[in-house]
Amino acid sequence: MTMTPEQQAEIDEQRAAPRETLRTVSEGMEKHLYSAIPVLDHGFVRVIDYMGDDAAICQAARVSYGKGTKSVQNDEGLIRYLMRHWHSTPFEMCEVKLHVKLPVFVARQWIRHRTANVNEYSARYSILDREFYIPAREALAAQSSVNNQGRGEGLTDEEAARVLDILKGDAARCYDHYEEMISGDGQAGLARELARMNLPANIYTQWYWKVDLHNLMHFLRLRADAHAQYEIRVYADAICQVVADWVPFAWKAFEDYRMGAVTFSAQMVACLRRMLAGEEVTAENSGMSAREWREFEAALRG
After folding, report:
1. Which is the catalytic residue, given 223, 273, 294, 301?
2. Parallel/antiparallel/unpaired status of strands 95-103 and 117-120
């Protein structure tokens, strides 16, 4: 993980000057303030600020439902009820602001989640650092034969070495040309906003990303999934650590009712009922497509 001296100095200064507050504090989240979780070869995730905790979720729910929640005996039970029945707005009362350093191609996947506030490092104003994501040997794999957007078998040692040489060589060459184009040594130099177009998608960028807990959990449900691309999944895994400490009741409910749960279609439910009634159900008489039947079988096998 690489942080600039200025970033580290800012963190050290903030950590050295704790302040008293009357606002709600999550003890689990406090330990994440002013520290960074390393991700990939040069990336990181760190918490800049946050608002709310498990109690804030319950507070919001009890305001919106009034006396209807009086039968709920504790906050954990209420949170599990809310999660189980898809009552999402109380979870929106918690927010977190993250500082993330990540490769550009990961950022372009990430930004598809359009329910956050984002401010990214400007390559029009500043010069990007010479830092590139170079995959570890074990992360290199061939195209999957069954999934058009996934990986298949790992590369042989010889093929992996060839690919790594290409990645490193292309990244270094592109950055050299980037520096040459914006150079001020005896030449006017190209504008930074134009010179940046020559940089590869594995160069690192940084942003501040602020999101409420409901939309963050939606992000994590998709990006911490085993089917997500490895490079974004490791960022999601790092954020999962943070959320588990920040709102432990909400996180446990999220694990049980979202991450560890499966969704069945109406056809799948009908087939399951037929199976429970003792009927032999096959792909041919299920009424499902071949792909949906495979997914159904996979869900039943766990």
Report:
1. 223
2. unpaired
